[in-house]
Amino acid sequence: MSIASLSGHLTLAPGFAWLGTYPAMLTFAVATCVEVAGYYIPWVDHLLDTIATPAAIIAGTVITAAVFTGSSPLLKWTLAAIAGGGAAAAVQTATVVGRTGSTAATGGLGNPIFATIELAASTLTSIAALLAPALVAILFICCFAFVGRTLWRRFRTARIAVPQKISASASS
User: Fold this and answer.
1) Residue range 122-134: average pLDDT?
2) Which of 7, 24, 104, 159 is 20 to 30 A from 132 (CA-CA)?
3) Is 115 helix (H, G, I), strand (E, B) or coil?
């Protein structure tokens, strides 16, 4: 969010302008590096998950509230708690369950692989969020082309099949 705000791609709600500052960006970058490094150390990853679960829900709520501008505080915080906090809770729960399964299956030795997959997924998700308008446009064009192609094939097949049926019934 800090990078998007600083680069002019995201407008933050008035009370959350601090998220788009260089000190905030630096703080978030350091925290991210420490967290990612910690997830590569068996057993430390579980400690981080214990701390991160409530923090993720709070962060998801605050981040979602930060992008709601021009709405009543009741609506803003209700949507932020449900959408942002709920989504963060779901993702965090999935990673905790996955990491617990990895630890149970490999004694913690597979957790760095799990951490790498989690890091790649979160990086791709962040990039996709920034590119969402372009990705949606590309997806729309692809869907439109697919539907158009399918309809054209059906129309062409039906048009070719009709004369054959007529000529077959006319000769009998």
Assistant:
1) 77
2) 24
3) helix
